[in-house]
Specification:
single chain, alpha+beta, 5-stranded antiparallel β-sheet, 8 helices, 30 strands
Amino acid sequence: MNPESQHMRRLAARHGFLIPSALLAAGLLLSAACGPAPAGMASPANAGPAPEPIGSVSAPTPDPRVGLAAGLFDAEEAIWNLRLVSTTPSPEDFAGVTNSDLAFFDRYAIQGNYNGYVVWDISDPRRPEVVQEYLCPASQSDVSVYGNLLFVSGEGMSGRLDCGSQGVPDTVSHERLRGIRIFDIADIRSPRYIGNVQTCRGSHTHTVVRQPGDMDNVYIYVSGSSRVRSPSELPGCVGAPPEEDPESALFRIEVIRVPLANPQAAAIVSSPRIFQGLGPAPRHAEPVDTAADRRRAERGLPPRGQQQRARTGPTQCHDITVYPAIGRAGGACGGYGLLLDISDAAHPVRLQAVADSNFSFWHSATFNNDGTKILFTDEWGGGSAPRCRDTDKYEWGANALFTLQNDRMEFKSYYKMPAAQTSNENCVAHNGSLIPIPGRDVMVQGWYQGGISIFDWTDVSNPTEIAYHDRGPVSEERLVSGGSWSVYWYNGYIVNSEIARGLDIFELVASPAITQNEIDAAKTVRFDYLNAQEQPLMVWPPSFALARAYVDQLVRSNGLPGARVAAVRAALAGAEGMSGQARRDALGALAGELAGDARGSADGAKVRMLAGALQDLAAAQ
């Protein structure tokens, strides 16, 4: 059995989720395709700065992100432990229009935009090339890929079935698109719009889901947050609450089944009411920010836009992240974070709901790779407000980190990008993904005009920032929307969708927080495609970089004495200089020694991981 299948079985056993053997053999459950390490990946022992305990890593002080000068393409920048490989403006028809989410396949990045989507060839990250500009306006053009299919969300009132840019002036119109568009991208330079699925509340976001054992279909979870459309426009849409009409379009998500052989026949197959029984969630009072709001407060009125109304439980999810490796999903659903059982993809079932008065709007979720933790983000202010000022509470507009055991989530801590931003910068927690640093939980995340922040949450109670990039405000005079909508790791690079500026590509730089060996090991994890909300299992193929990364981590944790670390590094260098049976014997002998070392180590689990990596490397020779 290959390492990926072994790791999948271990996760399945831990979480009680059955993975059919046929799927393991076919490699069809997950989107991660781990291939051999690229040529030249091996690094000498101790390459780059020496590793330090994460808690003692020193960030630059004073924080250079504070007080950066404004500008659209000439703003001041601050960067730490990253290298900006390229920044490329949006093409003309998309410039000045909001860039949104990202999806990846092969060598391409697909960037959503409120005018449609742009396909970038990122095979040379120094010079991304636009290979397709598809004008098809709709908010917010959330994108996902599967095989030769591209799915694009539409929710606003102006999206048209024919992709026209003239909008839809009528209140009720059969020309309006609110739902999921489907494109055939077998020829990425000439995509074909082949169908759509209309929904009652549109599609703010969506998530691609696969059903174990079902090779003929792919499923889509649709999260629509707009008002219910008229039944005169889409028959069957009911805006009354469920207690008045059981067919209500409120308090539910839609599940679309897409037949892969005939995607034009895609249709809604269920509308699970995963919010059933949830009452109003606790919430914090909004701060009084302006003179007008202070006058309203003196009259006993809420701030503008916060008028009192009857409160209910959540009527929709904003985003759902599925993790097929454990058969679970995290739903960020207005006032709650939900844990869902997705073992039957067409009928997700709520297992637990958590609420937090420090959270305003649960936005998205990310699992750690082992499925033992989950992180939720809070998009306080909806992404259009400044929520990272020095007067804003650390716990508001942040991430909430939970452990996950026996299908129960337990809160542990918050994480928020720590640099104060100005009142002219929309800033709050937004989209990100794991970085495949072996043996650790490391995430890169966008914070709109707070830039991007990379943090380590291996110690779930003490998350720590270890890298960042930020620009000054788009405008010095007023708040103009900009910043990082989504930033994801994809096959060795960090790709950022910048709302106002275009596409950024970054590369990690070796530092005491992330060593060159850890970076090299991360680069061995390769994906055929990536939708961040369809979270793939990360599996590291055997490599000397992987073994050396674990050695660096043992230095960081003081898991082995210095002399023993030096001996292990020397043995690794010697084995790398061998070949065939001699290399296998050397690696096997070192693995056996380390198995003994683990019993007396302060970090026995990591020593055993190193020994296992050496055994896998020996078997691969």
